[in-house]
Write a structure and sequence with these properties.
The chain has 346 residues and is of the alpha/beta class. 37% of the residues lie in helices and 15% in strands. The chain is built from 12 helices and 10 strands.
Length: 346
């Protein structure tokens, strides 16, 4: 009997090959053609499924990981969930050091996926012993038989997207892509995808999205780390207060910075126009497209691909919560109208 192609051995077989969806309403006044690579269609609901599976399988091939070992990682939430998901299937223990900036939804998801979670203060320097970088390093030193993924400084982070996201986008656009717009946190997604695409066509322009409060844009332009650029911001998984070696700055043509407030509103707008319930960084990427259009970056014949990294369900206590938006000072007429769409019948 022929095997049913819709029956899979495990959720891991569903990682990658995410759809490309045309953006029509939200881009109706823009020049160019817009396609969203919607990574929420991965089983773990984010692009980080790709690196979790790729890095762990490479470690297995090299004999670094053995059954019963403990995987340790620093994460804003998405990578942690993906690693926890892969660990469940493959039989590894999982310990995650997360930033206190991570939403309560993400932290609850990690716990319920079987991971042990250490919540570390967000607004401390990377070398502070309380930072999630240092906590992960300490745990790795203390726990025998542990493997520290260290996505920020792991070349395999780039390789995962070079071997999957890049080829998928090239094939889905039939090689007609002219611009790639993607958020940069660890830098693995944008760097690996860009490397593959530029090998196919060096004229493809790669635009990174950075947050105000992050050092990436200025470092790209000057190759100098400026700690004066650093201040607290709210977007998770975007920007950095250090320079990750998993970011290949030579593959990125330019950076655009976006604000917390505009990115939050734009994520809501994507849901209300395109019916796509996406995360905070997707709002940031879309906000960058708005700003690029205002500066006449694109022509009518351009084919622009934007990567939407994760699903909106990870942010129910944040950008999709009117109380949180109000507390951040983001509450305006848009939120007021949204709040009024709920009527309680007594």
């Amino acid at each position: 009997m022929e095997q049913n192609k819709q029956v899979f051995d495990s959720v891991l077989d569903l990682i990658g090959n995410t759809p490309m969806i045309k953006l029509k309403k939200i881009t109706s006044s823009f020049k160019g053609n817009y396609l969203a690579k919607v990574e929420a269609f991965n089983p773990g609901h984010s692009a980080k499924d790709r690196i979790a599976l790729y890095i762990l399988e490479q470690a297995e091939k090299q004999g670094i990981l053995k059954p019963g070992d403990t995987i340790i990682e620093t994460t804003s939430g998405n990578t942690g969930f993906s690693i926890a998901m892969v660990s469940v299937i493959k039989g590894y223990n999982c310990i995650l050091a997360v930033s206190s900036k991570s939403s309560a939804d993400k932290i609850d998801m990690l716990k319920n996926m079987g991971a042990k979670v250490y919540v570390c203060p967000a607004n401390v320097s990377a070398d502070d012993p309380r930072s999630y970088y240092q906590v992960a390093k300490r745990l790795h030193e203390e726990i025998k038989g542990s493997v520290y993924i260290n996505q920020y400084f792991n070349q395999l982070n780039i390789d995962a997207h070079y071997h999957s996201t890049g080829p998928e986008i090239w094939n889905q656009t039939e090689g007609k892509i002219t611009h790639l717009v993607a958020c940069s946190g660890t830098g693995g997604t944008i760097s690996g995808t860009a490397k593959y695409l530029k090998e196919k066509n060096p004229n493809i322009k790669v635009i990174g999205v950075d947050a105000y409060g992050s050092v990436l844009k200025k470092y790209h332009e000057t190759r100098e780390f400026d700690d004066k650029e650093i201040y607290p911001y709210r977007i998770e998984g975007l920007g950095k207060n250090l320079i990750p070696s998993a970011t290949d700055f030579d593959q990125i043509d330019t950076f655009v910075k976006v604000t917390d407030e505009e990115s939050a509103h734009t994520a809501r707008e994507i849901a209300n126009t395109e019916g796509l319930f996406v995360g905070y960084t997707s709002g940031a990427a879309m906000q960058a497209l708005k700003q690029l259009n205002e500066s006449n970056e694109f022509k009518a014949t351009d084919n622009i691909v934007v990567i939407f990294p994760d699903h909106g369900s990870r942010y129910m206590s944040k950008i999709y919560n009117d109380k949180w938006m109000n507390e951040q000072g983001f509450f305006d007429n848009i939120n007021e109208e949204a709040a009024q769409t709920i009527e309680y019948v007594k």
